[in-house]
Amino acid sequence: MRKLLFILLLWVSGAFAAEGPDTLDIARRLASAGAPQLALNRVEQSQPRDAAAPRWAEWEMLRFNLLFQLNRYADVLQRAAALPAGMPAAPLREALSLAARAASATAQGALAQQYAARVLWQLGPSAGELKELRLLVIESQAADKKGDDAFRSMLRYQQDYKPLERGTATRFVEALLELGMAKEAVNWLGSLDDANPVKLRLRLGADLVSADTAVAQARAQLAKGNSIGYWQVLTQAAAQQKNRALQIESLENILQLADAKQAQRLAAQAQELWQVYLAVAQEISNQSQLLMGDDVTWMDFAARRLGTQPFVARALFAHLAQRGQARETRHNAQLQIVFSLQSDKRELAALRLFQHAGLEVDAIDNQVRYLLGAIAEVRNLPAAALRFWEGLNTPPNTGAEEWQLRIATAALRAGMMERAATALKSVIDAGKMLPAELAQRSVALVQEMLDAGKPDLANELFEALLPRVGAAQQRSVLFALGRIRESGGQPPVAADYYLRSALLADGRPPDTLALQARLLAALNLARAGYKDDARAQFEWLIRNSKDTAQLELVRRELKKL
Known about the structure:
mainly alpha
């Protein structure tokens, strides 16, 4: 309660206003509390426009870190290119280091090395920053397929930082294996952990173990736990064995388990799986004398293999999904791929596969779009969910209000505030009383908009929601409207909303929200000069509140009247 009272006093004193002195600290606390998008909204609203303004560089550093945390690498690079020349060295060093990492994450090796070089040679990095940037340069060289340069940089790094850390050695080996340089990677074989799948990949690549042995060992480890590293071993072994079914199985699992933060790599993995699907379908068609364009025969051939050869079946369906002659065939094949991957517990692989299928969204079957959006929703990938759902009608067995709320939630989580508001308005404009659960969710979404620094939008939606929700939710709506009016410098109107919220409480003794609303109503009435009205509310609190800190505050305020 003491913490709540402190927050209430901050509201009253105006510290939560957009340009308040503590706004930067609030944004930092939002970020540290795991709400980077909310923190970024506050930065965008409150950062001074003039780069010469006091604390502008501090705001900019917070913005850089939040953009990077949200994987908005293009925005990081755009702002890095526009940094002012006179920026202090410490924040400039941090900004350019993040820009180098953003360039590396988007496979822009030359740009990553350019930013890293500025930090390394001009801005005096610390010892820790120096090590990190040298590793980043190595990784960017590897990403640019400059294997010889990367290998020489690795050797120099090892010479300067002996003994080489096991984790760093593992990163070197992984990069070299991706470049097909197993012979060079053997330099660090002895530095690898025996339990790390990278060591098995290296031994396989260097012909120190047979493909059959590697498959047996990887399968044994996968039986203990699903590790992307051992699926990479199987991919490598499958290529040596020319085992197409194993290749598809391993690539599907890699796509399921891949790190979402490595967007470029993820897209490449999805495209590789499509290519393997299509290549396998071509091989099967030649072996089984399937005629191109005979969709019915292909579909029947694939369906009959779903139970016994699911990987082969998915390859055939993938061919039909992309190249089927009839639209109905393509859509049916798309649906079969998603259903089949879901049944094998690879629903995230299905989502990623269609995210990078090279197909326009409207070329994908509507039912598939519903399913993929639902997968994205569960996986907390709101932008992906919205991409697949946008433009679809309400799905079967789902109410129109429920559907629009799901769209609004996805849009809000994706930072698309106006799109979220449009969806919510469609729920409100239906003119019906919302069921309690939908009302609670609607109010919570608008509250998020308010917390994100959109008071005008939140005010419009709260006013529209007020007659559509029951008394329990009306209390929260009225309280929020009081906050908006208070921050807008309208104490009489704020007091009206707060007191209306308090009067809707029906519990005895009054709950925390009722006590907060009464207190804020009293404080705003006092600020408006309505001393008798304020006194009545303070006296009510003295009779009904049991909180010592709150009563102490009330008595102090009463003495001022």
